[in-house]
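CORE FACILITY INTAKE
Project code: CF-77B
Contact: R.S. (postdoc)
Sample description: multi-component assembly, three entities in total
Requested service: structural model of the whole complex
Turnaround: standard
Below are the sequence entries exactly as provided by the requester. Do not edit them.
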Amino acid sequence: MNLWLIPIFPLAGFLINGLAGRRMSKTLVNVVAIGSVALSFAWVVKTLLGAGALEQPIVEHYFTWIQSGLINIGCDFAVDRLTAVMLLIVTGIGSLIHIYAVGYMEHEGGYYRFFSYMNLFMFFMLTLVLAANYLVMFVGWEGVGLCSYLLIGFYFLENFATTAGNKAFIVNRIGDFGFSLAMFLIFRQFGSLDFSKVFGAAASMPKEVGYGVLTTICMLLLVGACGKSAQIPLYVWLPDAMAGPTPVSALIHAATMVTAGVYMVARSHVLFLHAPIAMDWVAGIGLATAFFAATIGLTQFDIKKVFAYSTVSQLGYMFLGCGVGAFSAGIWHVMTHAFFKALLFLGAGAVIHGLHGEQDLRQMGGLWKHMKVTAITLLCASFAISGFPFSSGFFSKDAILSAAYERAPWIYWVGVGTAGLTAFYVFRAWFMAFTGKYRGDKHPHESPLIMTGPLMVLAALSLFGGFINIPHWLEPIFPEHGGENPVLVWTSAGVGMLGILISWIFYVRAPELPGKIAGALGGLYRLVLDKYRVDELYNLLIVRPLIGGSRTVLWRGVDAGVIDGAVNQVGARSRGVGAVLKLAQSGYIRSYAAWVVFGSVLLLLAVGLGGVR
Amino acid sequence: MDIALFIVFAVIAVLCGINLVVQTHPISSALSLIGVMGALAVLYLLLGAEFLAAAQMIVYAGAIMVLFVFVIMLLNAGAERITPARQLVKVIGVPLMAVFLGIVAFVIQGLLPRSELAWFGGFEGGGPRDVGIALFTRYLLPFEVTSVLILIAIIGAIVLAQKEID
Amino acid sequence: MPPAHAVPLNWYLILSAILFCLGIAGFLYRRSIITVFMSIELMLNAVNLSFITFSYHWKQVDGHIYSFFVMVVAAAEAAVGLAIILTVFKNRKSLEIDEISSMKD
């Protein structure tokens, strides 16, 4: 089966491009970069075709990684139906984005570096997905965090890019801490980190009522997932991550890395199902994040920021789905979201590229005339994310919402409201960019085929990809949830349409309305525009005390005072002792002799009192 | 008779020693030292060390002390000045020395049983024959080494003294 | 058969100790180099006496041999030492032991 080839192709691409890319021609770099991912995709397809029905996972063991006392962890890859879905998403959409990036990064510096990082990212992401135990998954987990940092800070000469990269990495780290603790607990509880062993043992445990071991493990896993998948309270890095090039935002922060958290929760569904309290937390955080981020997305003017908050919001939906027990719905939304969110980002990238770097929606308008393909594909994506009937988003979102209704109706209504908000802000962006008159001063143009090609593929997937019935495919893993209630389905679709309509009114029919309402809401509007000032809050509560504490206590107090002080004191004492001893070196022979006599007296006394033998 | 001899020459030795320490002029000290050596030579005889008594007089008193006297006269060393510090030293030093002496003497004499006695003729093995046999059989190596040592000393003395002439 | 006028052997040792202490006293308290040197010779003599005493005690000639070597070494040392004193005097024009202190630093 040779599963290891799947991540190895991108790793080879990384090595070739990274080590020799500087001297290679651009064409060669492109071939290596796209080729490695495409080969990976091809191998995935070949593997899946040859795997048959895949009712049971296929596990491949490569070598024993850690063998120490009680710990025995191997480097294992496994493929089951869930992995298959993720693999296809990662490699398929990854290939499309790599092709797009060739066109987008045409005139950028550090060309080969970009593609080597992208390939490295693919390697880690595939390792994460293919892992058969928590530790190998953690390797991939950390690796994608690293690549995220490298790629966000790609324009490393810009201060805002490097700080954004730092922020992403540090906040991720907090999540990783939770993940690590969870792994420790898992090992302590189950004696192994292998998925098969852990889940096999957990399946026979009773459902926990209070905050027991399983709940703690799941809560810690949730912390890790919040960090990686940008949920409250660790979402703050994702909007800033837009400082990276747009293909990065599309690949990492829309389609793949951020879904790693959802994947991990889905993979650990056995544990979560036995810890209902943790499930409630997952759902609660997901719902709150979805709503919260959607409100922020209403007010943003940077097109990438709008989509970034949209990503956070949609990730909330996925968590909601997992939290109410509809894991397959959550994964389905992962897939459809990958389609339309990647498309949204790539389309935004095409717009930015066509406007030579302009990202502010207020400087756009009337681009329909200039970029028809981009406009149409983005329209498809907007319909999909709004849950337009029979688009991909429609199916997955409704699967989640139906399951939510079964859990508790009020969750459903909040989710529906958020869906309305989603439709509103997505179409707000579309209308502001493509309708009306052009408000900027650049010369907009359509993007080349190498960029619009992937857009078209993704548009088709966004519209028709929903017909791939994922929950049915994932049935062996996640038992099918209850049937769908048509009333619920059409209600949510209707609310989505309502959102589109209101957006049309606000931004096409009566463009002065938004300004008036913003003025009327005054303080509230400014609060939302400032992202609820969460970043400032974190800065005040966490960052400043930490830096201040480090500066005064740790730096001045401990480092300079204690450590340096101790070392310096040792030196000073030595000098002091030396100065005293120096007095003995008087240069006077007779004083030396006196000391000799003195010593011999002592010796004599010792001998005399001790007795001679 | 042994006791009488011992006491007489022991007192001579001690007095000459004290004189050596007390006298200011080096020549007086040198002559006192010769006196000590002479007294010790007699005591060696009492202990049956005939060869060594002769060697003491010939080598020590006859050669080394002569060398000392030559150097003192060459350098024209005068009497030492008496400084106030010297008085202080006398006041503290003498009692300290006495204490030191007491300790050393006590330890030393505890090394031998009290009842042991020595008389002239009690030890017959100190003659030249016995010393020679021991020196050239058991202590041959130290003997040869010592000869090398003397050679080195000669060379060293010549080199050092020669510089002065130049 | 010890005659009635035999000397207790310990007395030789006490004499040796007295002479040794006198040598130390001279060594510590005298200022002229030559006198210090002579005090050293006095100490060596005292030790010689001690050796011979013990040789008598053990009724062996080895103590004499040691004493002999001490004498030889003392002779060599006297020769070289006096040569050094001559050189020092040539350089510093003084025989005061306290002025030869340039090893202080």
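Facility notes:
- Chain C touches chain A through twelve residues (CB under 8 Å).
- Chain C has a mean pLDDT of 86.
Invoice: internal transfer
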